[in-house]
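Question (not urgent): is this output format expected?
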Amino acid sequence: MSDTSETSEKEQPRRRQARGERRIAQLLTAAAQVFCTSGYTAASTNAIAREAGVSPGTLYQFFPNKEAIAVELGDRLMHEMRETYGEALAPVDPATPLEEAVGAAVDRFMAFNTAHPVFFALMHGPDIPGGITDAHDQLHATLIERVEGLLASLLPGTPAADITRTAHVCLGIYKAGLELVLGHEDAERAAYVQEVKNVLIRYLEPLVGDRLGRT
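Got this back:
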């Protein structure tokens, strides 16, 4: 067998794999749109296939049902979310003003959630798919731990129970604000993002005191 034939045979599986990955990405993008528009419960594989511009049979070559689609979509988004909160919740330089520290963290989280509104639809909706419930709970727990670690560095000597409570309140404020942010667009969306920052700053200001913003 010639070298050319061997190379061609090796390239064929790679091309098929690349086509498969593109098709999966196409289906996941369509599913994200359908889940955002209809909600998870009302969504159907037929609607997802129609949004993707493929036949239901093509969809079933890659996913057995809509829960499998939601699980794959959720896994990919949660991986990206972990990278986001790794950046957003990095240790804060004591010279950083509280407004700047809160603003930077909120901006990173908001950028992720507004770019992927389906994340909120799947993770915080009333009908979260059973297959991703455990993964979501683990993500939430890890996120709380990261917020606790950040708060502990800002509030030395504070009892652990108080740190945990404060972390839960901060995350609760963010989630409540996120729902409002996603419900608006353009200038109004930006205004709601600023309101979320303002609420978090006002909540944390008396707790942090002058620990941030020192030169």
